[in-house]
Description:
The complex is a heterodimer.
Chain A: E1 2-6, H1 10-34, H2 42-70, H3 83-96, H4 112-138, E2 140-143, E3 146-149, H5 156-179, H6 188-195, E4 197-201, H7 203-219
Antiparallel strand pairs in A: 1-4, 2-3
Helix pairs in contact in A: 1-2, 1-5, 4-5
Chain B: H1 5-24, H2 32-43, H3 65-75, H4 79-84, H5 87-90, E1 93-97, E2 101-105, H6 122-125, H7 150-153, H8 179-184, H9 191-198, H10 236-239, E3 242-243, E4 246-247, H11 265-268, H12 276-281, H13 287-291, E5 301-306, E6 313-314, E7 317-318, E8 320-322, E9 328-331, E10 335-340, E11 346-350, E12 354-356, E13 368-369, E14 371-373, E15 383-397, E16 402-403, H14 418-421, H15 424-435, E17 444-453, H16 467-470, H17 493-529
Parallel strand pairs in B: 5-15, 13-17
Antiparallel strand pairs in B: 1-2, 3-4, 5-10, 6-7, 8-9, 9-10, 11-15, 12-14, 15-16, 15-17
Amino acid sequence: MAKETYVYKVFERFWHWSQAFLILFLAVTGFDIHGSFNLMGFESAVRWHNISLWALVTLIVFAIFWHFTTGEWRQYIPTSKFIKAQIAYYITGIFKGAPHPTKKSVYNKFNPLQRLVYLGLKIFAIPVQVITGFLYLYYKYPSGGAIKSIDMVNLRLIALIHTIGAFALVAFVIAHVYLTTTGKKPLEAMKAMITGWEELEDEHEVIDQNTAVEKDQKEN
Amino acid sequence: MKKKLLPFLAIVLIPQIFLAIAILDKPKQMDPAVLEALKVEVQNRPKKAVDHSMFAELQKDFKRPQEVTEACLSCHTGRGDELLTNHHWLWERESFIEGRGVVYLGKKNLVNNFCTGIGGSEGTCNKCHAGYGWEDDTFDFTKQRNMDCLICHDNTQTYEKASGGAGYPPSSGPLAPDYNYITANVGKPTKYNCGYCHFYSAGGNNIKHGHLEEALLNTNRNVDVHMAREGLDMSCTDCHKTQNHIMLGRYYGTASNDYNRATCTQCHGNTPHAMSKLNEHTVKVACQTCHIPTYAKVNPTKTYWDWSTACDLHDGKPIEYMDSTGRISYQSIKGTAYWASNVEPEYVWFNGQADHMLVSDSITEFPVKINTLFGDYTDSKAQIWPVKIHRGKQPFDPHYHRILKAKLWDREPGKGGLWVDFNWESSLREGMKIAGLPWSGQWEFVETEMFLPISHMVSPKEMSLSCSDCHTREGSRLHNLTDFYMPARDRSATLDTIGILLILGTLFGVITHGTMRIIAYRRRKKISSK
């Protein structure tokens, strides 16, 4: 039985959309600084990039706190279970109208691919961007009326890593937005992320179905 | 279904907008209180302590300028001793240059690519020497009575030195000085005193430096924010502070070592901007780079001097051509000249140390570097500096691989002075004889470059360079300095291509996947409806 369930809490949605907005804004200002296009001019782009950097870092600090206090961090523990099934679903099953290989619940919001990608985002991509970003910003810094310098050969390596990260994040956003349409209805996931409510299978049925699929796979 | 879209959007957008508005206000770039304090400090100049018209020593009937000097030194004891070792007197300084060791360099022996140097032409060049009678290498640098006090300390603006007078003022005629009037009005050097020589180097106003010229005597903020008449009207010595005749400031282009220089930071400090990012730039960028966006803002400066065309005579007489703007484009005595005004400087790394070509140097690289400014990105003392690079062509000995010195001037014809005889052969022979170096008898003209760092004509802050003057892909002011990564100007083209392909690939992937899903969905629908 499908049931309207409250999946995404207020903070979670606030965090998600703020982060989405900030990442896109950082991408626009960042590529402006990079010289890919000239939208607001170098000086304004730098200023806005730095402002949104601080907003994002603040947000991330709160998000980390939230993940640990609520135990939501467990949702990101990677699993190899069903990962092949999930890939197979996107390659073939989805075109045949096959059911999703895993079922979503409040306690298991992400499919195995999501777990892997989001975890990678959290512990690799975003930290790399934040660290290279801070090095970029503070490799020269004021100290007692003088300017000190972190002993680095030059900015080039830092800048190139930061650029790779930016391209990767933009590609992630494109894929991520597209994959939101792969639910039962194309706008279902988007709606859920806005309102917090989503139609989910009944808890017990989810568990039953998941174990059933697991059995199926073992038998095959 | 709980529709909470509006409150939710409020949660998301309000903090962002709030943050934006709070910081949108553009930060001020310098603390006005600091500037005000500096203005007060500059305006507190000491008043004249004594009235020189009261002194009996200065009422004498002076026949020769040396008598004035003796009168000065009779009260100002010890000042002559100070000047004995001073560069305004010696025209040379002890320098240490890597690869050369300790050398004594100055106008006395250096080569430039304007009038090429004083050797052999002291009689006319040394009009600007703070002394009397330096005509050739027999001049006695220990005789204090030959020092010229008035050229720097005359406050009447009437003291003149004669052309071709080896530093002496005219002894008769309308320009002969009225010593009693002048000595009654002596004082600290003004812009006029310094400018008497420094504005006219290389033979005319602004020809050499491009940022030191007579327009500074009466100027506005846009030309020079410090010297503007409606502003602080600062004089040279407000920055080039002087103790015991040792002036703060040694010209960056000709002084080899980095000490005792006049700097912007001596008043403004190392971190004058309110915005930290700008202060951080000072580690690698000299103040002058952003704050002197153009030079030769009023009168033009020479940018190119081709000696190879000199000595063309018309009916045996020297000629002179002017271009449509009144600039001298050709002179038989000097060759061809190009001029420019409102010039954007070129930019180089410079750590304060310089090397100088000596006439004895064997030349291997062309264009010949008359001087070399040291430094690069990895040098912690080097900054990016604005320079005027003066280019030209001058005589060269293809056999000995040396830049040749020509004797330019003499009082009489037939003694090898180029400006009198218009004969390269005899003037090169005389010039090299004076330089004490052999000459093969052959000469050709080679390209030379001289680097002149720019430090004057500081613009008001509104006119200084903005970020995108350098931080831009196309037309960056620093396009020549490629030994470091600069945001917006630089990128890895390969990496950018890969990144764009990644994004396009992802877009292509999702569009294809989505289209296939729609097609598959329709097909399934058709089948199920059947």
